[in-house]
Every structure is written in C-alpha cells, then in structure tokens.
Design brief:
By secondary structure, the chain is α/β, with parallel strands linked by helices. The protein has helices at 32-44, 64-83, 95-106, 127-134, 146-161, 168-174, 177-180, 212-217, 273-277, 293-297, 299-306, and strands spanning 5-8, 53-55, 88-93, 112-118, 191-195, 198-202, 227-233, 237-244, 257-264, 283-288, 321-328, 330-336, 340-344, 348-349, 355-361, 364-371, 378-383, 390-397, 400-405, 408-411. Helix content is 25%, strand content 29%.
C-alpha cells in the first residue's frame, strides 16, 4: 500500500519563529540547498508535497522527546487526515531519525509502516561532548560538506554574537538537544588519558555526564521488518578524544578537555558508521559519502524499499566555497557576485541563485553565498543612522575556515 511519507530533516534543517523569533513560517531556511534535491528525488518517485509527502519542520534546539510531542505527532496526524491513511512512512535524516525512532518507541508505533533512518547517530556522536561539556565546536573542519559546515557555523555564531549566549550554562539551556546527542553507553568509551605513553580509558559509565535519552531508547525494540538504516563511510570522522584532566573544571570540561582526536574512516564526517547502525536489527546499507551526500546516493535503495521507480537524475549541487555573512544594524546590503543582489529591511530581492538569506529580525540578516573556488563577493552596507553596522564574514572552502570581522582577519586552527 502507498502510505504517505513524513520527512524529518536533521539538526539545523528547519528555520522559523520557533527557532529564531522574527524569521516567519517554518521552512528549510539555508538548508534548502541540502534538502531540496532529496525532496526532488521523492517527487520523481511520484510523491507530491502536501498530498502524500509531508515535511516535519521542528525546533531542533529542544530535547528529542519534546520535539516529537510538539511537532512530529502533529505532522503524522496531518498526513493521516489529508490522505485518509492510518499509517505513514517516516524518513529521518541525522537527528530527524532519532525523532522518528522515538515516535515509534514512545508514541504511536501502530501508525508507522516503515521507518528509514539516514546518517542517524543512534549511538550518539563524540562532537556533542565538545559542545555540551565545553561549549566548543570541534574546529576547524566541522563537516565534510561545505554548505552544511557554513549552515552550522552561521547559526551557532548567531547565538554567540546576537543573543549573547556565550557561556556554558546558557548554551546548555539554549541547546538541550546536545545532551541527547552525546555518546550512549552502547557507543563505548570515548575519552582516554595518556599516562607514560599508555592509553587508558575513562569508563563511560563513570563520567559526570551521560545520555539518558539514548540509554533508555536502546532498551526498546523496533520490528526489524519495519526498520531500514542508511549509513555513510569513507570520510574521516571523530571517534575518540585524548583528554587532559589538569584543565578539568567543576562545570566546564568536568571529564577532561580534549587535546587530541582519533578519527575513523568508517563514518560520514559527522557520525561513525557504527553509531548509525546502532546495534539495531533491520535492513541496512552502507554508502560511500558524507553526511549529506548519502541522502542523494540513497535514492536507488529508497526506490526499492518504497517500491517506486526513478525516471530522472537528480544531482547534488557542487559547492567548493561558501561565504556566510552575519550583519546587524543594516538598512540595506548589496551583495555583489556575478549579479547585484539587494537585501533590505522589509523585502528580499535576489537575482543570483548563489545567494540565500534569512531576515533574522529587525535589520539583522544571515546570508549564505555558495559557488565554486572562483567565487568572490563584495559588500556595500548602508547602516541605520549614525550607529555602525556590525558585520562578520566567514569564508569556508576545502582549506578550512576564515573569519573577517570589520576588518580583523584570523584563522581558526
């Protein structure tokens, strides 16, 4: 039977008033470039948005169970009402897969025909430790995908710069979902010490922090005939940390500050292959690719699962360089690439498809410009009154990340 699909994007994959006030109705936001090609693949299989394909946008900052209760339950009900079908097919990317899994285990399993998880951290991800324990992003290379890298950096820095969320307690309060992404007990030990050159583990069960959400979720069962997992490999992914206990603090780095990273090629650059597979039963496939490219590479496997055929080729956009611009107190901004794009207080008028923008609030913007290695931009800024505009430009390419802050330039090492 052709049940409707509910697609759940991952971390940073939704934008709207629930996430940043003033940004309007829910959409993919700057993640449009990441998720629209995947939606086009589902369109090619015959699914139509609003008819038998529904996108579950949600506030990805809040705990998983809260997000399921507030957003996913409503979206599933909407799909049922609109189609007259009792069951749906859940497809979740990254964090979205955890929402789908939690829905099946804790809410309404009888409403789900299949659950398909793509790049989902079923055992957690070690990078969440950097954020939850130390309030730090694991610089310099956050993601293998340059667009996803820019999206994550831009949104996190928005909270640092404009919301003044820059100390550990406030970050934990603002992003409680990070605790749900910490490695679970099943992940195994991931913090180690070096004593006289000998590597010694810090037992995960004796750490001061744990992932109570995943530790409980792992005890639940999903029918293996209903479960499909798509994982990535071939991209070096953070797996373990060597930590220094000398810089241990009561609130920050309570289990040690990372000094060295151990990586594995069995991962997608964000989640290890083992974490995605998660010791779960069901059917799975492992694809060569990064955290976002496996979305598009999964098309043939998805077509088989869904009993559909593909009629055309949908390709991932090739992006070699991204500029992320955070601007405050700007009456007008001209962004010059091949064309001239003007972004103003009350409207957005863009003639160059390289440019995407979000009006964060009154005279405040988050802009992404993506293209090849030859891409260059020029900014002309008109401030409001006599107060100077505040502008931060982040350049991301395969060499790393560079920041320019009126006019200070520095590299994150």
């Amino acid at each position: 039977m052709d049940y409707p699909i509910v697609f759940i994007p991952g971390l940073f994959g939704s934008m709207g008033d629930d996430i940043i006030k003033g940004t309007g109705d829910f959409s993919f936001g700057l993640a449009e470039r990441i998720y629209r090609p995947f939606i086009e693949i589902l369109n090619d299989m015959g699914y139509t948005e609003g008819l038998d394909l529904f996108i579950c946008y949600y506030n990805w900052k809040i705990p998983v169970l809260e997000a399921v209760d507030k957003y996913l339950c409503y979206c599933v009900e909407k799909a049922q009402v609109n189609t007259g079908m009792k069951k749906v097919i859940l497809i979740g990317h990254s964090l979205g897969g955890l929402l789908g899994r939690a829905y099946v285990n804790y809410f309404n399993p009888s409403f789900v025909d299949k659950i398909i998880m793509i790049g989902t951290p079923n055992l957690g991800a070690v990078d969440a430790y950097c954020f939850w324990s130390g309030g730090k992003l694991p610089y310099p290379k956050i993601e293998d995908n340059i667009i996803y890298n820019g999206l994550k950096l831009g949104l996190i820095l928005y909270y640092y710069l404009f919301e003044r969320i820059n100390y550990i307690e406030a970050l934990r309060e603002m992003f409680p979902v990070a605790k749900d992404l910490l490695p679970s007990y099943e992940y195994g030990d991931y913090l180690f010490l070096k004593n006289n050159g000998i590597k010694e583990e810090i037992p995960i069960r004796s750490m001061s922090i744990d992932n109570s959400f995943l530790n409980r979720l792992e005890k639940n069962f999903i029918n293996e005939n209903d479960l499909f997992i798509i994982s990535g490999r071939g991209i070096y992914t953070n797996k373990e940390f060597i930590v220094d206990l000398k810089e241990k603090e009561k609130i920050k780095w309570a289990d040690g500050k990372p000094k060295k990273i151990f990586k594995t090629s069995y991962g997608d650059g964000t989640v290890t292959t083992a974490s995605t597979l998660g010791n779960l039963s069901g059917r799975n496939t492992i694809l060569e690719g990064n955290h976002t490219s496996i979305l598009y590479k999964s098309k043939n496997y998805l077509a088989t699962i869904l009993g559909k055929t593909l009629t055309r080729e949908v390709k991932e956009e090739k992006v070699e360089k991204v500029y992320v611009v955070l601007a405050d107190n700007c009456n007008k901004i001209n962004i010059k690439t091949l064309n001239v794009d003007e972004i103003a207080e009350e409207y957005v008028s863009i003639g160059d498809n390289k440019v995407q923008t979000i009006n964060l609030s009154y005279n405040r913007f988050l802009i992404m410009v993506a293209g090849d290695n030859n891409l260059k931009i020029k900014l002309d800024i008109e401030p409001i009154g006599t107060k100077k505009s505040k502008v931060l430009v982040i350049t991301i390419d395969n060499k790393g990340v560079e920041f320019e802050d009126n006019p200070l330039k520095y590299n994150l090492q």
